[in-house]
Design goal:
The protein is an alpha/beta fold. The protein is 28% helix and 27% strand. The chain has one domain (11-268): 4-Layer Sandwich (Nitrilase/N-carbamoyl-D-aminoacid amidohydrolase). It contains 8 helices and 16 strands. Strand 1, helix 1 and strand 2 (45-47) form a beta-alpha-beta unit.
Length: 295
Amino acid sequence: MNTVREKSASFRVGLIQMRSGRSPEANLNVATKLIGEAHRHGADYVLTPEMTNIMELSRDKLFATIVSEETDVSLATFRELARKLSIYVHVGSLAIKVSPDKAANRSFLIDPKGDIVARYDKIHMFDVDLPDGESYRESRNFRAGELAVLTDLPWGRFGLTICYDLRFPSLYRALAEAGASVLTIPSAFTRQTGEAHWHILVRARAIENGCFVLAAAQGGQHENGRETFGHSLVVDPWGTIVAEGGVEPGVIFTEIDPAQVAAARAKIPSLQHGRRFEIIEPMAEPTHLHVVGDK
């Protein structure tokens, strides 16, 4: 399947880069200020990073602070802001309490009327031990999502993902084959993994799927002691970085022409050439090769 739903009109993107701390109220104040700046510079769509509302490593402090979706002040504020500014506000993710001992790492796409048009719960949990001694167990606090999510916007079909999902190319291929022309990857990459892999992985997802990739990021030394890589990126379907942030909080802007998707896919039609392979299990006994000329 190679459905392309891009429209002809270009649109202006604003990626919000943050350095979220432990206070949802303080983080909300920063995010709303930056979204306002994006609007003043003509953004039609803004994307915030993963964990916009809180960056907290302590389980007890996290669950003492976060609340359900229905009572989350940040979400309500973002909905009102989208309505007031008449723009799409894509909240990269919020930590949302879904049970007494589990949260969801949940993305919200809000339309210019203030309605939530898509939700996505991060599928792949960041459970890793890094070489420098850093250790993360996202699954201890967060419940993994189970469904990939697509939604149609005026400029094309958007596929929603979050951070560690970036390392699982099959998810992005499934979104592209289902018609996605824009892939969103709000993130909070560690400095160590970001320096090694961030640019390569984001560009690879764009190139192999012929999609725009929008990746708003957390950056810098956070209140909880964690250090994130920053470098929010917009990458076009040919793999070119068209906008990039640094480490400091702020907004990066770019114009996106959806017609570039069809153009890139016409040059390299890999979505049409993909095949499913049958895997042959190795034989239990060693094989014996017959060489021509053997007696």
